[in-house]
Amino acid sequence: MPAPTRTTPVAPFGAIAIYRLVQTVAAAGQALRARIVARRTRRILAGLSDEILEDIGLSRADIV
Q1: Is the pTM of this model over 0.85?
Q2: Whose CA is closest to 45, among 33, 30, 63?
Q3: Residues 6+ positions from 46 with CB-CB distance below 8 Å
Q4: Does some domain include residue 3?
Q5: pLDDT at residue 11, rounded to an integer
Q6: What is the pLDDT of residues 34-63, one digit of tens each?
Q7: DSSP of 7-18
Q8: Calpha distance 45→18 (Å, rounded)
Q9: Is residue 51 part of a domain?
Q10: How far apart are the C-alpha atoms of 40 and 24, rounded to whole Å?
Q11: For residue 26, is it within any domain?
Q12: Where are the beta strands (DSSP E) in 1-64?
């Protein structure tokens, strides 16, 4: 009698853990990039005058 064949692929040992680690590091990188963009945006907005902020519908309190 022949041995049963496997129809479902099996991940190599540790592959799922490595995949999750890579996903976690990638998510952390994306979060860091988002923080950098937000900080840069706040810095640029902080350099604008109150009149210009009012023109674009913001106040100084909105950018803190």
Answers
A1: no
A2: 63
A3: 63
A4: no
A5: 80
A6: 999 999 999 999 999 999 999 999 999 999
A7: -S--PPTTHHHH
A8: 41
A9: yes
A10: 24
A11: yes
A12: none
